[in-house]
Design a protein that fits this description.
single chain, alpha+beta, 5-stranded mixed beta sheet, about 20% helix, elongated
Length: about 230
């Protein structure tokens, strides 16, 4: 097979990498679908740039991505590297050999200085996208305002400043691009799930209403009303 490819360990399936980006996950819309509960629906991307291939963990799964057993966020791959998506594993092949340090991990962009309120806004923005069950759109300005108990106008002002700080240009899906950048930098991570035991509901016995005597036909007998003669 010409060009880079990945061989899935469990199934033996060999998938050639796309010329640009190959998506990996458990969802229906990805290029390489892995039926493993430890894999998130949009888990990682395999990116080709010329003769090079690097992997990007999307930060949407608590199980993460590993290369040769080491957790990574973004890293250049070499021929023969073993990549783990949660518990699922695959081996890269067809990558041209070159004098590239296998321990080299691509540097992330430096995060800008953020205020406490801006961090709160980013956390609320990314919360829907950090679900293990699905990759969904980030929160809207109204949802963030409700979550933080502030006005929607205040949230929009914070978002405008955050777009500038993270250099997110104007255009469609601006909130999504901001959320992806924040998650890729590791500024917001999934919170551990807290299981709260369901309290047993106390059943209060109801007091039965007194039954009126019934006639032979089964209807309730009414008390006759006696009218006084005028």
């Amino acid at each position: 097979m010409e060009g880079p490819f990945i061989r899935i360990e469990d199934s033996g399936m060999v998938v050639p990498l796309r010329p640009d980006v190959t998506t990996v996950g458990r969802g229906k819309g990805v290029d390489i679908r892995l039926e493993d509960p430890s894999v998130s629906r949009f888990h990682a991307e395999l990116v080709r740039r010329g003769p090079y291939v690097y992997i990007v963990d999307m930060g949407l799964s608590r199980n993460g991505t590993r290369v040769n057993g080491r957790p990574i966020a973004r890293r250049v791959l070499e021929d023969g590297d073993v990549v783990s998506f949660g518990s699922a594993r695959g081996r890269l092949g067809g990558i041209p050999r070159e004098d590239v340090d296998p321990e080299t991990e691509l540097k992330r962009a430096v995060a800008p200085e953020l205020t406490r309120r801006e961090i709160d806004v980013l956390t609320s923005l990314c919360r829907p996208a950090l679900s293990d069950e699905a990759f969904v759109a980030p929160a809207t300005a109204r949802e963030i305002a409700t979550d933080l108990v502030v006005t929607e106008a205040a949230v929009k002002q914070h978002l405008l400043r955050l777009y500038q700080k993270f250099r997110v240009p104007e255009g469609a899906n601006r909130r999504t691009r901001l959320a992806n950048e924040v998650i890729a930098m590791g500024l917001v991570r999934p919170l551990p799930t807290v299981h709260v035991p369901q309290q047993q509901q106390r059943t209060v016995p109801s007091t039965p209403e007194p039954r009126r005597p019934a006639t032979a036909t089964g209807y309730t007998q009414r008390t006759p009303v006696t009218r006084r003669a005028s």
